[in-house]
Design goal:
The complex is a heterodimer of chains A (165) and B (152). With 165 residues, chain A is mainly beta. Chain A has a single domain, classed as Sandwich (Immunoglobulin-like). Chain A has 1 helix and 11 strands, in the order H-E-E-E-E-E-E-E-E-E-E-E. In chain A, the strands form 2 sheets. In chain A, strands 2, 3, 4, 6, 7, 8 and 10 form a 7-stranded antiparallel beta sheet that branches. Chain A has a 3-stranded antiparallel beta sheet with strand order 9-5-11, with no helix packed on it. Chain A starts with a helix and ends with a strand. The relative contact order of chain A is 0.24. In chain B, 9% of the residues lie in helices and 47% in strands. Chain B has 152 residues and is mostly beta strands. Chain B starts with a helix and ends with a strand. Classes of the chains: A mainly beta (165), B mainly beta (152).
Chain lengths: 165, 152
């Protein structure tokens, strides 16, 4: 009986020790975010080939007055990826006019002088907003009318998508 | 019999965790990256890059209680504003390191008690949601997330 009592006493003593021995520790991490202003994209000018003639390919380069232009605003000096959805044909009803050989250029100011060339059809292009939060993007291309190209007004849509990175 | 009592005590003490064996460590920040003014942004707890992460180690077949201290706002670095942050009730995940451990989704706003059945250590991932106002001041924001773990 004495022995059992001793053993019980030991067990009780341990259990009390164990309950009191629960320990706590803490650790920290940071939660972080960087707030940027939203990007705006405006189709500022059509890419316009004017009159074209059968079998005479016509190219508009980015420095031409008829090149396409997008005006973007965003976070000052923010890095941005620019990508395009490009047509392979301009259409006039059921008729197609092939378009390709896309060219592009970006600049933080509204001039193609000194702009940075890129290939719009090659996927996303890394660029950056100017310190004033501006970015201008010009687009050129080539249309290739066939010998039997139907006369008419042909149109297509060029879409620019921009995202911070 | 004294010897028996000593052996029993030794066996019980051997199962008692030592202070140095139980740890909690913050190993990855909860990083929302770039968020846009006026656009709510959520990081999932399973996000392998952006979610916050802690590592907890104790002993197999023991219990741990975890309790987050969560911010309600991130403060703009350099002053000038706060960015509201919330933690949806499914934005915590705990998973043991053993191959057969099953991830457990939980509400980080409420204390949780886990039994360490398959592994003695586990990771705790934390997601969250920030809600920048339309006129939120641009810049970097930061807050502190604390995980307190009680080892039983």
């Amino acid at each position: 009986m004495r022995i059992l009592t001793k053993v019980s006493a030991v067990v009780v003593a341990f259990m009390s020790l164990n309950a009191a021995g629960a320990s706590a520790q803490s650790a920290n991490i940071n939660a972080t975010a960087t707030v940027f202003q939203a990007i705006t994209v405006t189709g500022a000018r059509y890419l316009s080939f004017g009159n074209v003639f059968p079998v005479v390919a016509k190219t508009v380069v980015v420095s031409d007055a008829t090149s396409g232009r997008f005006d973007l605003t965003g976070q000052s000096s923010g890095n941005v990826n620019v990508s395009f959805t490009l047509p392979t044909n301009l259409t006039s009803g059921a008729n197609n006019l092939p378009i390709g050989t896309w060219t592009g250029c970006t600049n933080g100011t509204n001039t193609t002088t000194g702009c940075t060339s890129f290939t719009p059809s090659a996927g996303a292009t890394a660029s950056a907003f100017s310190g004033a939060g501006a970015l201008f993007v010009w687009v050129g291309g080539t249309v290739s009318p066939a010998a039997n190209q139907a006369a008419g007004a042909y149109t297509g849509v060029v879409t620019l998508t921009a995202a911070y990175f | 019999m004294r010897r028996c009592a000593f052996l029993l005590l030794s066996a019980l003490l051997a199962a008692t965790p030592l202070a140095g064996q139980s740890t909690v460590t913050g190993i990855r920040d909860l990083a929302f990256g770039i968020v846009i003014r006026g656009v709510q942004t959520t990081v999932a707890p399973a996000d392998p890059v952006k979610s916050g992460r802690f590592y907890v180690r104790h002993r197999l077949n023991r219990q741990v209680r975890i309790q987050f201290t969560l911010p309600t706002q991130l403060a703009r670095v350099g002053g000038g504003g706060n960015l509201p942050i919330t933690f949806p009730n499914n934005s915590g995940i705990a998973q043991g390191t053993a191959g057969n451990s099953v991830p457990l989704t939980f509400n980080p706003n409420v204390a949780q008690t886990f039994n360490l059945v398959t592994s003695a250590d586990f990771f705790v991932n934390l997601g969250g949601r920030v809600s920048p106002a339309a006129n939120q001041a641009t810049g970097n924001y930061r807050g502190t997330v604390t995980l307190t773990v009680t080892f039983f």
